[in-house]
Amino acid sequence: MHLLNLTLSPPTSITTAVVGSFSGAKGQEILAVRGGTKLEILKLNTGTGLLDTICTTEAFGTVRNVAGFRLAGMTKDYILLSSDAGRLSIIEFVVTPTPHFESLYQEVYGKSGSRRIVPGQFLAVDPKGRSCMYGAIEKAKLVYVLNRNAEGKLFPSSPLEAHKNHTLVVDMIGVDQGYDNPMYAALEMDYTEADEDSSGDAKDRTQKFLTFYELDLGLNHVVRKWSEPTDRRANKLVQVPGGQNAQSERFEGPSGVLICCEDHIIWRHMDAEPHRIPIPRRRNPLAQRGESSRGNIIVSAVMHKIRGDFFFLLQNEDGDLFKVTIEHEGEDVRALRIKYFDTVPVAQSLCVLKSGYLFVASEFGDQQLYQFQSLGDDGDEQEWSSSDYPQNGDSDAPLPYAFFNPRPIQNLALVDTLPSLDPITDAKVVNLLGHNSDTPQIYATCGRGPRSTFRTLKHGLDVSPVVASPLPGVPNAVWTVKLTEDDEFDSYIVLSFPNGTLVLSIGQTIEEVNDTGFLSSGPTLAVQQLGNSGLLQVHPYGLRHIRAADRVDEWSVPPGCSIVSATTNKRQVVIALSTAELVYFELDPEGSLSEYQDKKELPGNATCLSIAEVPEGRRRTPYLAVGCDNQTVHIISLEPENTLETLSLQALTAPPSSICLAEIFDTSIDKNRATLFLNIGLTNGVLLRTVVDPVDGTLSDTRLRFAGAKPPRLVRATVHGAPAVLAFSTRTWIVYTHQDLLQTQPLIYDQLEFAWSFSASMCPEGLIGISGNTLRIFTIPKLGEKLKQDTTPLSYTPRKFVSHPYAPIFYIVEADHRTYGPKTIERILGEKEASGSRVDRTILDLPPTEFGRPRAGPGHWASCLRILDPVANDTISTFEMDEDEAALCATIAYFPQGNGEPFLVVGTAKQMVVTPKSSQGGFLRVYAIKNQGRELELLHKTKTDDVPLCLAGFQGFLLAGIGKSLRLYEMGKKALLRKCENTGFPTAVATINVIGARIIVGDMQESTFYCVYRSIPTRQLLIFADDSQPRWLTCVTNVDYDTVACADKFGNVFVNRVEQRVSETVDEDPTGAGILHDKGFLMGAANKTDLIAHYNVGSIITSLTKVPLAEGGRDVLVYTTISGAVGALIPFVSMDDVDFMSTLEMHMRAQNISPIGRDHLAYRGYYAPIKSVIDGDLCEAFNTLPYPKQQGIASDLDKSVGDVLKKLEQMRTSSAF
Amino acid sequence: MSELRYTANTQLEQLHARYTGTGHADTTKYEWMTHQHRDTLASIAGHPPLLAYLAIADGECQARSKFEVIEKMLQPCGKPPGKTD
């Protein structure tokens, strides 16, 4: 078996983001690292106020840190990356001709992989761009001097070492010293003594040091300049501006660092008195007597310079932003001040744009862009200053608590949200829409805590409807037309009915008009604004050229025939007559239509015609495309020297129903100008796309796609100012260009018969379409989105969900650790009130989606079970669990008592703590399902001695994975009855899959076990095969009876198969005696599974589903990851394809396209060698290579570049999207 | 570190000094375990998806999880055993 890995939707989580002017142009860009593996440049569109993605590229490796730096005298920031490639990477963002990243420098310094002593975890840059430091978590630090060589090219020096053995680093930054020698600060801990002292005192005595490293640029070496103990719980350093301004000699700031510790922030610098302030905290109304509350830490920080001054925004674990300012005189700090600013979602990175925006790269869920309304200078928010405390707050004892009251945002205003799927905790791929959809949808539970959501993902572009109004009949076409060439907006809507034509005028309202000069007694074939101020109507018996209200030129067809098809543009008109003849008209200098003297005879009746728009600066478009009913398409010249001469011809597999020529930009074909595409819709529902050669009109590079069960009608339209082609079949498809590449996507909308561009003052960039007997005006808000999302909010982190066996209902189990449930909150408040303490409920009344819930200690859980209707996107009801009971898994099971009705079983854990693992046991809750799945009734709870992590229904029983044992339960009246168990699993049962009589159990650390259930002579669960390798499983799915696809915690996905001989022997053994007496092999079961495919995706896979994704496509494995990506593993059908793709992959590997210089083979074989899986994403990067390289690879493959591209597209579209 | 004592004046000395965590014939179970745990914890902090996985399971934010993971590297396997001569 060979598989092709394709990403369907790229990861959305941002692991780190930096701001800088990477393009060198005006304005700033944000560089975001998506899912740790994808680099993306975001830029604020000042017109719309939204963030646009300018460029993305796959790193094919884990990007750990990014930083921007600017060499002296430059206007552009370079990008410095640290990654798991063991290299220093410097890349440049280049805007022309198309935005892309260029690798400037790759310097190997260590082993690949994210390791303990290989630098890369920390990356610090000198603010003046003179040097940088790469640090590892332990020991290693390397300093590079960023020089320029004689040609002015960037040229880093060889690294200088600043290693210190047995030292752990918590954080590292560059210190701003102006133009003094570059300095770096690190928070360090030495473990030498702790490792030696068996009493454990040394560990408690271990101090954390703030250490300054100075790079002496004159001597070219690094010294450990200064090291002083600081707070033991310091976790983060923040750079403080320093150095003198070259002109005014004024100090920019006091330099030094802010040390963020638990509950405190300290300013420190060499030879200066420290200043310390508390981190304000929220009052916790749920704090109970004797409960020690944990300190709060700063999780992200940003420093911003504004008009010679600077301030910091620091964010704590609850998402509260604090504004920190430093009052200083020269280099002396007078006071360090802090005040509450606003509350935003907890961020991985905060980025402040100079134009006054704050980008919050939220750690889970949607990312936000805020605009600053004020800097919080006024207002009555309390401020804490270090000068208010003795010795500026510098003492060993903690400072008194500072309390603030969180409130809705005041200083910021939300302007844009980037929808983000991460983390996807579970997903199902299924078609719940029945006949309304050809393809399955992806249903995913996303997010964490109160910001969790349930999302429905549908393939296609979202449409936002503007108007829908009924019509007197069912029209078959609609056009909009301007009155003159220079009009901004359209003036008329023309509707063609089988027996008449209706003209509507667009003004304040849309109303019918009769004095337009259009013939209204019959249908219309085409409408066009012609020349400067003419209008043209083509009807079956002639042409009407309306040159003014009182002047109409008419042309009538010869008697006995009619017009079957027509095509027009601003200067040209071509009509096909029922006598298989073509008539060609062109606008003459006087502005009237003149007929070409000859008619063109066709070999068959024309079914459809198309000409492109007149190219800019030209008099005419040179080509006409004609589709004939003898299954051919002709390209006919319209040039004066060979008018109506057939240039080329293509045979088709079915008669063409519609045809459309359009010039669309696609860099993979032509990087400089738009390509003329011929789109052909066939009567069998297939959509063909062919490139027309601009010189001789020959046709090449045909791409094919199944559009739907109806013959597609094609229309050229303008979408977002660029030409696009619409195809109307059972689904509406749109062919357009996005980020300079051609895209073909369906619209998620009702079935349309026809549509046309629509431009009016109320809707400048819309489309007008017909669906049944309604007229629809709609827009496509965002191009380039592959999946449309519909969101339903959830209460807590979703853990798992199951679907009702036949009704479209999902049951979601949600649980949040370190949180109190509503019942617990009421109990605590009740107790406190009863004991006479005053309780302030204001914090509890704030919306948890923005402010979170009050934090509780470990072992406290809030959890619920939710019934959700995924079609209506609505929660039907929720059931809160008991106090500290966490619902972790659920399944549908059938029991004999149910008379064929299903039951829902939910596994819960009581007071579970994740690390170190502990719990008070768990429960199995059995619910009866009523009213088509919309109601549940709790029947009983069964206590278990350990945590149930997975459940499955099995032959009228329930299988439960409880701790290390797999148990079989029978339904009883008051509880579930344990019938038999197998306790032979090494760590914990994490997954159970049932296929027929076979049970496949996944262990948390030790991969899969194949089991069978035997009831003769006694009930037994027997293991007959297992895996020879340890695997930390996250999810398992059956591929066939003998084969499973599994994913593990390290981002691997693999396929295991048990030998068919073993499989058959086991199935033929009714008592299981053979299995019992088989001799174990390698300290496990007698039989081992074979690994048949292995691949590293780069992120943890949380769900695997085997399902056909495309209409009429084969089964593929769809996976979702914790970083919010959706991908598919597609099985190959022929060995020819395997050979082709693996050779292409080999060539692509040789191109070293990774911007971080990670070896592709090593990355995809991160933990185990890659096996039988081809990286489709790498192959598809062929699209972006320069043409000579493409040609080199294609010739090695004995193909043309077009053929390779076509093959790549076909691999994707035939099975996925 | 104790392993350096045993390997003094051998060609392995440099290797041990350079590659923290390299074992030798007299590595104790505690030393080995500690190295394993430190490697694992460093790997969790260094792989964003693993850190996210841990943070979601534990109900913490990623920065807190990362901080605690690095702090834990100080003594991941509890107190060292006493000297037995």
From TrEMBL, chain A:
Instruction: Give residue ranges for domain RSE1/DDB1/CPSF1 C-terminal.
Output: 862-1183
Location relative to the cell: Nucleus
Tell me the Gene Ontology biological-process terms attached to this UniProt entry: mRNA processing; RNA splicing
Q: Which Pfam families match?
A: Beta-prop_RSE1_1st, Beta-prop_RSE1_2nd, CPSF_A
Which InterPro entries does the protein's record reference? Beta-prop_RSE1/DDB1/CPSF1_1st (IPR018846), Beta-prop_RSE1/DDB1/CPSF1_2nd (IPR058543), Quinoprotein_ADH-like_sf (IPR011047), RSE1/DDB1/CFT1 (IPR050358), RSE1/DDB1/CPSF1_C (IPR004871), WD40/YVTN_repeat-like_dom_sf (IPR015943)
**One Gene Ontology cellular component annotation held by this UniProt entry:** spliceosomal complex
Q: Name one GO molecular function term.
A: nucleic acid binding
Main localization, broad class: nucleus
Domain annotation RSE1/DDB1/CPSF1 first beta-propeller: ranges:
13-418
Q: What keywords is this UniProt entry annotated with?
A: mRNA processing, mRNA splicing, Nucleus, Spliceosome
Q: Boundaries of each RSE1/DDB1/CPSF1 second beta-propeller domain copy?
A: 466-780
Q: Which family does it belong to?
A: Belongs to the RSE1 family.
Subunit record text: Associated with the spliceosome.
The record's function comment reads: Involved in pre-mRNA splicing and cell cycle control.
The entry's protein name is DNA damage-binding protein 1
Organism, by scientific name, is: Kockovaella imperatae
UniProtKB/TrEMBL annotation, chain B:
Which InterPro entries does the UniProt entry name for this protein?
A: SF3b5/RDS3-10, Splicing_factor_3B_subunit_5
One Gene Ontology biological process: mRNA splicing, via spliceosome
Q: What cellular-component terms does GO give this entry? A: precatalytic spliceosome; U2 snRNP
Q: Which Pfam family, any one of them, does this sequence belong to?
A: SF3b10
Q: Which domain of life is it from?
A: Eukaryota
Give the protein family: Belongs to the SF3B5 family.
| Name of this protein | Splicing factor subunit
The organism named in the record is Kockovaella imperatae
